[in-house]
Amino acid sequence: MSGFIRVLRLLLLILLSLFIIICGTLIKFLPLAPYRKLRLQTRGMQWWAQAGCRILGIHIVRTGSYRLDDVFFIVSNHCSYIDILVIGSMVQSVFVSKNDVASWLFLGRMVRLAGTIFVNRESKIASVRVLETINERLRSGISVVVFPEGTTNNGLAMRDFKSTFFKAPIDSGVPILPVSIIYSHIEGMPVTPGTIDTVAWHSDMEFLSHFWNLLGIRRIDAHVHFSQSVHNFTEDRKVLASKVFEKVRDGYNGNFCEEYTLGNAP
Asked: Does residue 57 contact residue 220 with C-beta atoms inside 8 Å?
């Protein structure tokens, strides 16, 4: 894709982000209860994610199902920053994110306005506070999205889930919704181990150059599978994390065929 189209896409994303930031700031001054403000802000973020997917040419195919009016503790695999757009476009929710995202240009300001829960994964005390905030959001009727791998994977294999935040659904009684994201096609061609890095952002990849290359992709196909939600928790958080990991991995590896491999997605 030409440099002109990349610049145009970038400008559209900046203008969209500025609009959402202005709207989110105005919402803060409305005479509404805090949870109602947060609902409006998360709705704005959902619109932002939907528009962002259109601008970036991200086409989403869903399998499985969930009730739109239910509140969930949403758990997903994580290989790219665009995972936020993909999930955010479908489910009105807030995300749990690492601290440094708060300092990102435009995105940091937006996610703060949308009630994103920031965590310092190196601090156990901070994790306890985050658990309290997650429970507050869930009890207020707002779904929370967690990427329990702790960081992005390489798009080829999932990392083990960290169990810390699985205490939140146990404490709140909110069901867990396992979500699997698979980027199946790029520019109409099946994804292979050699091309997945055009979407996956991991390890020591430089963000700006990766994002600039992403702006040049005409179409990205994302397959999102919603596994059956998990209720009635009897396990401790580590056993529960392992159980949900299996569900997300099953959706990632085999929801369309018995042995899913990159390059064979529909």
From this structure: yes
Strands 176-186 and 189-190: antiparallel
At 125-153, the pLDDT tens digits run 777 889 999 999 999 899 999 999 989 99
Three-class SS of 144-202: EEECCCCCCCCCCCCCCCCCHHHHHHHHHCCCEEEEEEEEEEECCEECCCCCHHHCCCC
pLDDT score of 159 more than 60: yes
Residue position matching structure tokens 């069901």: 175
The pTM of this model reads 0.90
User: Which residues does 106 contact at the CB level (< 8 Å), separation at least 6?
Assistant: 14, 17, 18, 21
Rounded Cα distance, 137 and 130, in Å: 11
Domains of the chain, earliest start first: 3-254 (3.40.1130)
pLDDT tens track for 37-93:
988 999 999 999 999 999 999 999 999 888 877 999 999 999 999 999 999 999 999
**Dist CA 124 CA 228 (whole Å):** 31
For residue 224, is pLDDT > 90? yes
The dihedral built from the CA positions of residue 36, 101, 109 and 209, taken in this order, carries a sign that is: negative
Residue 7 CA to residue 5 CA, distance in Å, equals: 5
Between CA 151 and CA 79 the distance in angstroms is 8
The residue to which tokens 């399998």 are assigned: 63
- Contact by Cβ (8 Å): 146, 162: no
DSSP category for residue 74: E
C-alpha dist (Å) from residue 180 to 13, 105, 186: 26, 28, 18
Q: How many CA atoms lie within 13 A of 41 on its CB side?
A: 27
DSSP 8-state assignment for residue 161: P
